[in-house]
Amino acid sequence: MSEQNRQKPNKMSASRPAKKVTGSRPTKAVTGSRPVKDATDPRKVGSSHYRAVPAKKKSPLKALLISTVALAAVAVLVVILGLMMSGLRYTQASDNAGTTAKFFGWVDKAGNIDKGTLYFSGQRNGTAKISAKDSSITYSNGDVYVGEMANGFPNGQGKMSYYNGDVYEGSFANGVINGKGKLTYAGGDVYEGDFSNGVSSGAGKYTEANGTTHEGSFTDNMKNGAFKTVYGDGSVFEGNYVNDAKSGAGKYTFASGDVYEGNFENDRFSGQGVYTWANGEKYTGNFTDGQITGWGKYEWPSGRILEGQFEKGVFVRTETEETDDNEETNEEEGSQQ
Q: Which sign, positive or negative, has the C-alpha torsion 315, 321, 326, 332?
């Protein structure tokens, strides 16, 4: 056969050889498959030995209870948020005297107390109603304050009317009387002047109900330092006080015209001093417990002088006498004392 007439080889002979059976993925053996339940399996549906457990149904009452609690919680939250948006607050503050005030009520947009209740502990106990509109604090014990305030306490100028009848008008600092003010006592006494931490301290004037006035420097509600006291009967004392008692140098002018000038101790003449009677007679010497006691000199307007030892206002012994009749002089001296 010529090459032209030679048949071309069949394409099958040039195709990709088929995979051998031996190279294919082995199939699962029957022995490895899941066993099939037969009709005799006691677990089959309908068997008296196997029944499907039905799903538990929720109790309508329990579901209602849960829904109610959830709604109540939401309602409470809404109410709280609403109250807070309206200005309801709970705050706490302390004054300069150690009193703590817990406030529950409403505040304004700036956060300042508007109205509500104060609960106190510490130096002051009890409660109080506060109102910014009335600028007032009404305490449970009967005290009433009207004036400027801050954080639930009097602060600035104001008036405090106490339950016992006392009235203070003046300056406050964080709940405590401080600065200039006037305190009028129920009994009629009046103090006007400086205050510090709730007590009279500094320059001031105390006027008693009977008309007696004390003007000078106070410390812790007591007269301390230089003072002028004018008594209701017209007597006048000018001198030094220590803890409300005349002590040190001073001058006492009696309403009768008599004058004592010298040293004082515990409100009495004590030590060296000069006592001049309104009639011109004069004693110069020592005093003890308000009486002429010790060495001294007694002088008369006539010029007579008696000098010696005195005991409780009585002349007892002389060293020098400038008189012609000692016995007569002694009798006169005894009558003057």
A: negative
CA torsion 62-65-66-69 (nearest 10°) is -160
Dist. CA 253–CA 185, nearest whole Å = 29
Q: Is 284 in contact with 305 (CB distance < 8 Å)?
A: no
Residues 6+ apart with CB under 8 A from 243: 222, 223, 224
CB neighbourhood size of 216 (10 A): 20
HSE toward the beta carbon, residue 114, CA cutoff 13 A = 11
Picking from 313, 320, 317, the residue whose alpha carbon sits closest to that of residue 334 is 313
What is the rounded CA–CA span in Å between residue 273 and residue 258?
Answer: 13
Residue among 137, 103, 141 at smallest CA distance from 123: 141
* Domains annotated on the chain, with CATH: 154-336 (2.20.110.10)
Is 142 in a helix, a strand, or coil? coil
Q: Give pLDDT tens digits for 229-258.
A: 999 999 999 999 999 999 999 999 999 999
Give per-residue pLDDT as tens, 276-305.
999 999 999 999 999 999 999 999 999 999
C-alpha–C-alpha distance, residues 181 and 186, integer Å: 16
What is this structure's pTM? 0.68
Q: What is each CA distance from 330 to 111, 245, 280, 285, 308, in whole angstroms?
A: 85, 35, 18, 17, 11
At residue 184's C-alpha, the angle toward residues 181 and 190, to 5°, is 85
